[in-house]
Amino acid sequence: MKYLILDTNVFLHYKDFEQIDWKSIVGDDVTICVTQVVLGEIDKHKDQSRGRIQKRAKKISSRFSEIFLQDLSSQLNVEVMGNPPSSAFNDEQYHKDINDDWIILSALHSDHPDEDIMIASGDNGILLKAKNHGLGYYLMPDTLLLAEEPSDEEKEIRQLKQQLARYENRRPEPKIEFEDDTDLLTIVKPTFIDIQKELKAYEEQLRSNHAYQSITDEHRSDMELLVQQTLNLTYSTPSQQKEYNKELDEYFKKKITLKEVQLGKQFLEQRFVKLDFWLCNTGTAALGDTIVFINFPENVAIYTQESKVNVKCEDPAEPILKNNLTGYNQSLMGIINSNHKHYETYDLWDVKKKLDHKELKFSSARIIHGMKYPLENRKEDYYIDIAHCNNFTIKWSIMDSNLIEPVLGELHVVIKEQTDT
Fold first, then answer.
1. Which long-range contacts (CB under 8 A, 24 or more apart) does 215-223 make?
2. d(CA 310, CA 346)
3. What is the model's pTM?
4. Which residue did the predictor score with more confidence, 37 or 232?
5. What is the distance between the alpha carbons of residues 76 and 4, in angstroms, rounded to a whole number?
6. Phi, psi dihedral angles at 150 (to 5 degrees)
7. What is the pLDDT of residues 64-78, one digit of tens each?
8. CA 19, CA 419: separation in Å to the nearest integer?
9. CA nearest 6: which of 42, 30, 38?
10. What distance in Å separates the CA atoms of residue 140 and residue 4, rounded to the nearest whole number?
């Protein structure tokens, strides 16, 4: 048995839910579940909407009354699903003012197994949430949509609007979007590098390429040393070999420190994601002087390039094994290391250097209709740390000199774990 939760748009915009062959769609017997929030939305459309939507909502509401209040039979199993407990909204990824969250939580807190629950909708947003919570989902096909035949009232309204459009002043319609022209940004977490694993492999390779000197001459007799030196005019003494091994230890230490900083930078760059906000004008007139406010939730940290710290690390030169000629004619032989040290500089994210406010303010002027403009604040970029974020909603407001009232809206950020394909 599958428990199929229908979104409000299924009842309003698609064929009669009792006439759809749900069993062939889901491959099992079906119980249609109607959540409390959907019942409320249907009643709201019945009372406040107009035209075809209101007519459809009245028909659905009447059918609900027959099934749930008058106990009239239906060819389908139909049940009302209760609201989730208030404590469910203690998780900050859910919001009481988002109906999709009520539906998702109603499913998760029902008596039915999650694996048997499916959500059907014509909107991708709620289906994406269902998928992220391990619930089944079904996108309603266009073939099940109701014919777009306007009612007489809708026809009349359309004619009036056409007449009014000839006289109505042109007006701007601003909104805030992400760079891809949507209010939904989906971020898939990458596979973060394992710093300790990478560092261990690097150290093993480094040490395999630079072997210590075996000090074998310490216990030889003067005669044995004299014979060796006679046969090999260029040789290293035990003290020079010891000095080389000591310098090699210091070389390993500095190279490993440098590599650790490099890996740390790579790891942090994977975590910090830039958010690009765009001011769009979809209206028929230009904007005036515009002020935009973007508000992040309290639990989401915001970072800028000022959140980075400068780290300077020495990139040491490889030590050179000295021999008996060293110092004798060093300028000619060219075998002595220079005292000059080479340093590498890196900018690393500091997760503690976050902005102390959650509201960003931008200003702009005269964005013509049909255009979009990137929001910039003194050319700063804004970032979030996806390693410490869950899904969240950004609220925005726009005040413009050509508009009487502010325009309000939301942006949604979804952060997903990487899944195998």
1. 215/241, 215/242, 215/245, 217/241
2. 6
3. 0.52
4. 37
5. 11
6. -70, 150
7. 999 999 989 888 999
8. 37
9. 38
10. 12
